Amino acid sequence: MATNTFNSIHHNHSLRRRRHPVDSPPTTATTKNYPFYLKTNRRRRHPFPLPIFRRHPTTNPSTTPQTVNDKDDVSFELLKHHLSAQNFRQADEETRRLLISLAGEAAVKRGYVFFSEVQFIPKEDLKAIDALWRQHSDDKYGYSVQKRIWKKVGGDFTKFFIRVGWMKKLESCEVDQYNYRSFPGEFIWELEEGTPEGHLPLTNALRGTQLLTSILNHPAFDQGDDDDDDIGQEDRQSGVNIKPLMGNASFKPNYTF
Where are the stretches annotated Disordered (predicted)? Predict the structure, then answer.
């Protein structure tokens, strides 16, 4: 009788000590937070379901984890949602995140895109991003729109920045002088009648204009040479002589967007 009681106590004690891994609380993976501009972050969960807009078919997302730098599993659904809701500030931020993701693993780890990495972004993906911007802005926004304006001014970035509204005219000057807008407060985030064509999406030129040049010259935006004879002709005929604010020796271009 005593032996049976001892065995029963020993058995119950063993059951209490055993613990299956599934009973343990799951550990929470830490994510690295990146600064605001041209910095990537983890894919955000949206409070309600969004339609899937993918370049390639994928397996069930509930069983296959998504990685931010997997080019074959890049989703444009969040960009589509922001644009359809006219949330252009959020759409601009999502566009930058997509470019980093599409540029490759090195760009994701670094947090921004080198101009030399733009060539690795698939043509169909840049076209998809551009198509969404044009669709939800009545063809007023998008990289292809910016490419057309850039060609019209003969590839002159000062004139281009003025045309798309990335530079503003200084009212206090007797002659036409321009300065760069500060990000984000001085940029236009509403689609209005007076919003400059090609104003969005923004491209960071803090390290120079090579990144923007590489995007505009990407094969995704090759539209043929039909307009080559007209490049710069509009400005030559108008006789406009644009002089940005460059006379001050302490002035430095500020491409902080």
Answer: 1-33, 48-69, 223-245
